[in-house]
């Protein structure tokens, strides 16, 4: 009963001084304390995107050896460079995609100088 009387006397129900600053909420290095689960600050989406770019550059470079190397070679090179810049976990595939993209352009250069045209065929 004494606490209630003091609380009413001082202007608050819990007996604290109304002129005193409110205590700061408890915080941790991850932010304010709460019952919610702690989420990581970095999501896995950028790394998944970089991994997908690495695989796509490899596939495009491989397919580009056979068909449409004028389009697929540069696309493989660009995707591989972006994947490497984003620190992909599939670094080997990105490097293979880069090498295959360059090989696409080298094959295109040999075919253009040999045939005198951008197209090529299997027949003599």
Description:
The model has no long low-confidence stretch (mean pLDDT 76). The protein has a two-stranded antiparallel sheet with strand order 1-2. It has 124 residues and is mainly alpha-helical. The protein has helices at residues 2-10, 45-64, 69-85, 91-115, and strands spanning 27-28, 31-32. Strand 1 (27-28) and strand 2 (31-32) form a beta hairpin. Helix 2 runs antiparallel to helix 3 and helix 2 (45-64) runs parallel beside helix 4 (91-115).
The chain-level mean pLDDT equals 76
The number of helical segments is 4
Write out the strand line-up for the largest beta sheet, numbering strands in chain order: 1-2
Determine the structural class based on helices, strands and strand pairing: mainly alpha
Q: Radius of gyration over alpha carbons?
A: 32 Å
Give a brief outline of the structure:
By secondary structure, the chain is mainly alpha-helical. It contains 4 helices and 2 strands.
